[in-house]
Structure formats: C-alpha cells, structure tokens
Specification:
heterodimer, A: alpha/beta, Rossmann fold, 5-stranded antiparallel sheet, 32% strand, B: 339 residues
C-alpha cells in the first residue's frame, strides 16, 4: 500500500466523468470514488449523447462508462469522441462485450461490483498514468479496433456531424467509399465522414446486404441499379442515385455470387 | 440356431434309444422333421416380429395362432412324411412313422408354443427398450424446454442491474434498499414457483407485474411511469401464469431502455362478450434505431395461448407512430372453475 500512497502523492488530480443511464448506478460510482482524494468528479451524463458532449467539452482524464444506454451505447460513444481519456467500462450482462474485454485485457466492472474491485480499477489507472511518462501511451483507437472483434453484424452506425450526432440504420446506407483514414458513408443523399476502415465495414456489415465491389467501395445491394461494361473485363456499378463506381474483378465475382446472375 | 441343434439331438437320442431305431434312419428322420419345423419357425418370426403386440387384441392373436398352428402342422406332417419316406425306403420305418404321429403332433405343438413365446419375449423386450429410449429423449426435451423458459423469463440484465441499484441504495437509502430486496425476492419467487400451477387470477399476475415495474422504476426514476385502470370484475378472472410479464418486459426493453424521455405504460382491462380483454399501451421514441428483435417473446405467448385455448387470434399487436399497443384476449373463466 506504500506504493499507492507514493503514486497518489505524486499524482495530479484525475478529472472524472460518470456516464450511466441509471441514477443509482451513478451514485454508486460517486460513492466509491469519494474514497480517493486524487479523483474528482466533474460531471455526469445519463445517456450517450450527453456523454459525447460532456467529454468533448470537459476533457476528462477518466470516464466511467456504462455500455447499455439508450440510443447510443458505450462503444458507439467511444467512436464519436476526439479526446483520449482512460475508460473504465461497466456492464451488467453482455456476453459479447465481456468476451471482447477478456480477450483484450481492458478493465471493466461487472455490475454489481465491490468496493475492492472498484479500487483495483482505479489503481490500474494510476499505474498506467505513471507508465505514460515512460512512453506507454494508451491508445483508444487500438482498443476500439480490438473491441471490434464482436461477431454480431452492425444494425446502426453513429456519426458526428458538426455539433450533431446522427444514428443511421444500416439499411439506409447506400454505399461507403474509402477516403484516406476515413470512410465516406452515403445515406439519403447525405455524405458522412467516419474514422473507420473499409475492412471494418466489410467485416461488420451483413454480407447478404453489403458487397465490397472494389478496394475503395462497399455498396448496399438494394441501392444498385445496374452494371455496365466499362472496358474489357471491367465493370461500372451504377446506383439508383446515379453514382458510378468501379467494380474490381473480385467485386464482380462477389456480386455475381450474391445476385446469382 | 443352437437351440435347433439341441432339439435335433434330443429327437435323435429319443428315436435311437427309446425306439431302437438304426442311426442313419434316426438322423434322417430328425433332420427332415426338425429342419422343416425350423423353417416354419423362421416364417413365424416375420409374422410375430413385425406385428405390434399392443395394437392387436388378444382374441384375434390367439385365433390367428391356432389357425397358423393347424395349417403349419398339417403341412409339416405331410411334407415331412413324404420326404422321410422317400429318403428311407423301409417298411418298419413307415409303421413307426404312423405310430409316432400323435407324439409328433404334440411335440410340434409344444415347440410352436415355445417358439412363439420366445418371439413375443424378444418383441416385448425390443419394444420396452425403444419406449425407454423415447421416454428418456422426451424427458430431456422437457427439461431443456423448462430451462429455456426460465432463462427467457428472468432477464439477466434486469437482475444484475437491479442488484447494482440495491448495492447503491444500501448507502444512500437503506430502507429503500431493503424494500427493493423484498420486491425482487417476491418477484423471483413468483417466477420460480409458477410451475406448480397453470392458471392464476389476474389480480395476482398483475401484482407481480407491478412489483417488476416498481423495481425498474427504482433504476430509471421518472423515465418510467405506469398506470393500471381495472374494473373489479376483472380481478378474479383466471389467466395463464406469467403470460403478462413478457409483455411488460417488452415495453420496458423497447420503451424505457431505449429512450431518453418519459415512457408511460398504461394498462386497461374489461370483460367483453366471453373474453377478458387486456390492453397494454406504451409510447416509445420513434427516432431510435433498434436491432430488430427476433420476436421470440411474443411468439412464445402466442404458442402458449394456442396450446391452452386452441385459438390463435388471442394476441394482437399494433404499432402506430410512437405508440405500441397489445391486445390480449383471454377466454372468460372465473377463479375456482378450472378448465
């Protein structure tokens, strides 16, 4: 315990944010946290939207984040913030999430959790902060990518546009194009940027509905109008909104398989 | 096979010792008659082995066997005699054959009886084993079904989150924590013990639903509101146990869990013609993008209603704008008069 004392003396104060849709769950974190002098609570949010806003406004060091929340869950929230706080997940029962956590050794609290277990999570943060000086930067992106191992297909995509957050059902996406480190998602005549890879969408969209037709494009099969011969052995996909996209040889094969022509 | 060799041996021994017949004749006699009998026995197996012993009535079976026995023995004696006479051209043997006829008839009848008995034993044993196996399978299926039922009824998300709320309340409001423990216990008890009975009064079922909603209300506060408008007449109507609970869990899951504003669950009840009509309405936020549920909850209820009432139009759901409505019709039936 001498060790922790040593850390806490040396440490700055951690600014903490609690995001959970249940009031009693938030009070519990508040209560547990009151025993740690170097952690102070700077805000609370009762849903994902508020959570994103508060994180971006207040720039907390630590976020206690519930996974199951209305409209925007804990994982989706992570995709929408620019800051890089320490995240302590909490969940009551979520097989997929727990499996992902265990595989990636991210700290998480299973509700209900004890004071001791909570203290362990807090201590881990203090230790990580020490390592930070020696070059072990925590990487939110890396953590998120490893969380993406989930085997379930996406049913919605959360996107930030300016100050707004949009949640788009996957059925409403017509196509996705690569754009450097981002992808451009097209839906209902709008275009949205998201910091994800094509590979991610290729793996997480239902392959019965979405086809990667080229290195740089994924289309919703429902949005496809026709295929046009472009050159010898090369095709163009023409979507219902008149978008023209190149189709690679592999893409053509995949389309042929799915549409059985 | 072994038994037949034994029978032939005995037959031969009796002929050669008791009747002082010469060995060759005794062997031929034994072979001819017993092989014929063995052949008939084999034929008999197809008749007995593939019949369903419990389906035919006893009189028919006995009658059939007597007929079969008579026909078989007639053929057997005649055929056997012809073959034996052809093989053994000896006058004394002919006389012996004629003399021994009654004995042959009796022993053949006796053998027939034993063969049929053995066959029936085999058939019954086979049948018993099969029945045992299917029974085992059935039992497994039932246990599995019950387990699934239990799993689907106690939502782990609900359970662990409730426990977390209690954990929180123990510090801020001990009395409320105790209250919630009692409610949660009552709720679980109702869920676990419901197997004993098929039906319960609407009053009791709704009592459990209210307990459930009150627990959720501690978690969600003002986000969840509920209202019950009941006439007294409805309270004692019998309904299947746990038929309402999944409907409220649905309302909470799709309404409260997924909304940031207030969700009101309103229940009305009336007696209409010969039915008890229960109306459950809840609002939900229509802009929420939800994973399409498999609809297992509603399907289970429909299946149960169909099993109990042999009617498949008892549950109706309608979704309009931001309101979800469930209409549940239960054939009218008062307490103390079971189906």
């Amino acid at each position: 315990m001498n060790f922790t004392f040593h850390i806490s003396k040396k440490m700055k104060k951690f600014k903490c944010l609690i995001i959970d849709d249940e009031f009693p769950a938030r009070s519990l974190v508040r209560e547990y946290l009151s025993g740690f002098d170097n952690f102070e609570i700077i805000g609370e949010a009762a849903n994902g939207f508020e959570g994103v806003q508060l994180i971006n406004e207040l720039n907390p060091d630590v976020v206690f984040l519930d996974i199951q929340m209305p409209k925007l869950n804990g994982f989706e929230l992570l995709e929408l913030i620019d800051k890089d706080p320490y995240i302590v997940f909490s969940t009551a029962f979520d097989q997929y999430a727990i499996r992902a956590f265990e595989k990636n050794a991210i700290d998480y609290l299973l509700k209900p959790y004890s004071k001791e277990r909570f203290a362990l999570a807090v201590q881990k943060i203090s230790e990580k902060e020490l390592e930070k000086g020696s070059g072990h930067e925590p990487d939110r992106k890396k953590m998120m990518d490893s969380l993406d191992d989930s085997s379930e297909y996406l049913f919605r995509v959360a996107i930030r546009t300016g100050n707004q957050i949009k949640v788009i059902p996957v059925e409403a996406i017509s196509h996705i194009e690569a754009d450097d480190d981002y992808v451009r998602i097209y839906s209902d005549g709008h275009k949205y940027l998201k910091e994800k890879t094509m590979k991610y969408f290729e793996n997480h969209l239902d392959p019965r509905q979405f086809v990667r037709i080229h290195r740089s494009a994924i289309i919703n099969i429902v949005a496809l109008d026709k295929l046009e011969r472009y050159e010898k052995d090369s095709y163009l996909a023409i979507l219902k909104d008149q978008t023209r996209l190149r189709v690679s040889a592999n893409g053509y094969k995949a389309l042929k398989e799915l549409l059985k022509f | 096979m072994l038994i037949w060799i034994l029978v032939m041996g005995i037959h031969f021994a009796v002929l050669s010792t008791v009747y002082q017949m010469n060995y060759i004749n005794a062997v031929i006699d034994s072979l001819v008659f017993n092989l014929l009998l063995a052949f008939f026995g084999l034929v008999l197996w197809f008749a007995v082995g593939f019949s369903k012993p419990d389906k035919a009535n006893l009189f028919n079976v006995i009658f059939n066997h007597i007929t079969a026995l008579t026909i078989m023995i007639l053929i057997w004696i005649n055929l056997g005699s012809i073959i034996a006479k052809a093989l053994i051209p000896d006058q004394t043997y002919y006389e012996f054959l004629a003399e021994s006829m009654p004995w042959r008839l009796i022993s053949a009848g006796f053998l027939y009886f034993i063969i049929v008995l053995i066959y029936y034993l085999i058939v019954y044993y086979r049948d018993l084993q099969e029945r045992y196996r299917t029974e085992l399978k059935l039992k497994e299926a039932i246990v599995e079904g019950e387990l699934n039922l239990l799993k689907s009824q106690i939502n782990p998300h609900f359970l662990f989150n409730s426990l977390n709320s209690i954990s929180s309340l123990t510090v801020s409001n001990g009395e409320k924590a105790r209250d919630m423990i009692v409610k949660l216990s009552d709720f679980l008890r109702y869920t676990v013990t419901k197997e004993d009975t098929q039906f319960t009064s609407l009053e009791k079922e709704v009592g459990n639903v209210i307990r459930y909603l009150e627990i959720e209300k501690i978690r969600f506060g003002d986000k969840l509101k509920f209202e019950f408008v009941f006439s007294n007449k409805c309270n004692h109507v019998l309904i299947p146990v746990m038929i309402l609970q999944p409907l409220y869990e649905n309302a909470v899951k799709h309404g409260v869990y997924e909304s940031t504003g207030t969700v009101l669950i309103k229940t009305e009840c009336e007696i209409k013609d010969n039915y008890l009509l229960i109306l459950i309405k809840n609002n939900f936020e229509s802009d929420v993008v939800q994973r399409k549920g498999a609809g297992i909850g509603l399907k289970n209820i429909r299946d149960r209603l169909k099993l109990i009432y042999k009617h498949d139009q008892l549950l109706k759901t309608t979704k309009t704008g931001d309101e979800f409505m469930v209409e549940l019709y239960i054939p009218y039936q008062q307490e103390n008069e079971k189906v």
